[in-house]
Amino acid sequence: MHVSSLIRSTLGLKGHHVKSVREEAGGIFAKIVANKRSRPVCSVCGRKRPCYDTLKERRWRHIPLWGKPVTLLFRPRRAKCKTCGIKVEKIPWSSGKSPLSLPLIILLATYAKILALEEVARLTGVHWNTVRAAVKAAVDYGLEHRETASVIAIGVDEISRRKGHKYMTMVYDLSRMRLLWCGEGRDKNAIQAFFNDWGEERCKAIKAVCCDMWQPYIDVIEEMLPNAVMVFDKFHIIAHLSKAIDEVRREEARKLKDEGRENILSKTRYIFLKNPENLTDKQRLRLSDLEKLNLKINRAYVLKEAFRCFWDYTYRANAKKYLDKWFWWATHSRIEQMRDFAWMIRNHEEQILNYFKVPITNAAVEGMNRKAKVVSQRAYGYRTVGTFQLALYHVLGDLPMPETTHRFL
Ligand SMILES: [Zn+2]
Hints:
Blueprint: H1 3-11, E1 16-24, E2 27-34, E3 51-54, E4 58-65, E5 68-74, E6 77-81, E7 85-88, H2 102-112, H3 117-124, H4 128-145, E8 153-161, E9 166-173, E10 178-184, H5 188-205, E11 208-211, H6 215-224, E12 229-232, H7 234-258, H8 269-273, H9 281-291, H10 296-309, H11 316-331, H12 336-347, H13 349-353, H14 363-377, H15 385-396
Parallel strand pairs: 2-5, 8-11, 11-12
Antiparallel strand pairs: 1-2, 3-6, 4-5, 6-7, 8-9, 9-10
Helix pairs in contact: 2-4, 3-4, 4-15, 5-6, 7-10, 7-12, 10-11, 11-12, 14-15
The structure holds zinc ion.
Zinc ion binds near residues 45, 81, 84 and 87.
């Protein structure tokens, strides 16, 4: 079998064929030409049209063969299309202006879903920049060809990039659990940039948004999606409550220490944060011992457990009634942290109660965020935000890949 027929069959060439293959400086160069009487296919409408002229030679990096780099050479023709004008012909192995062949893009991008870019580079013997370019081409294709008409519920969340306080705003599709958009920062500009990209038409289709009680997001979402139901994420609310509980416990432990009393609250952090059904036997015993004492944390704990019942309601009106009762109880508890939490809830009550209208949460989003963390840890290569973003879209975006006639993997 000749290398030329191998290339022809794996590229699925019909209107073109491999004219010659030569080896030069350790690499394989395959020259492709159009079949004699074939007419170029217009790259816009996909119809066969008369040939207008021939451009100068272009080169594509192709999949290395047994460790030898392969380059495809071809002079694209331009078609004279009566509907589209003068257009470059459709080249079956090419994706846009990328200097990489479509199969190479797919091969590198497929590896890059599970490996760091530098590992893919080492494994396939291509430069890091080439791997990045392949991922970029695959992501560009995916973003352009993904289906977005079904996006009606989105979850907005943030992740921190690296250890510092660099944040990324993440927008997820809650029905298909995929990343729709990510951008630097977590301020108004960050979330506004999403809406600008998403455009008026697609914004109109969004019926519900789940997010944290974070004012910059709230302001922009209310302005951009006036008709969507905004739901504050249950798990963020629980996290706020847990933080309050933890502060009560720490403050009380400090107080005991200052008074020179035994630190009975040492190593109790998770006892008060966990749900009682998840406690170990040992923790349960410890808790029931502590409950016999007159401690502030015990009262806070009872409030926390009572708040959990709130989510069990089915009807908004009943949930509201319960919340009112709980609010009175918390604000009269003489525990500053619980009072603050209760007021935060009251100030955001409408969107919290929206949960009973549209029961969406960002629970699944947390799983996606964990994946994002793995992506960020994988990468010494993500010196720039751009490459990190690219990797996030690639791994979390559930993007369609371009099709080829032959599977190389
Ligand atoms: Zn055309």
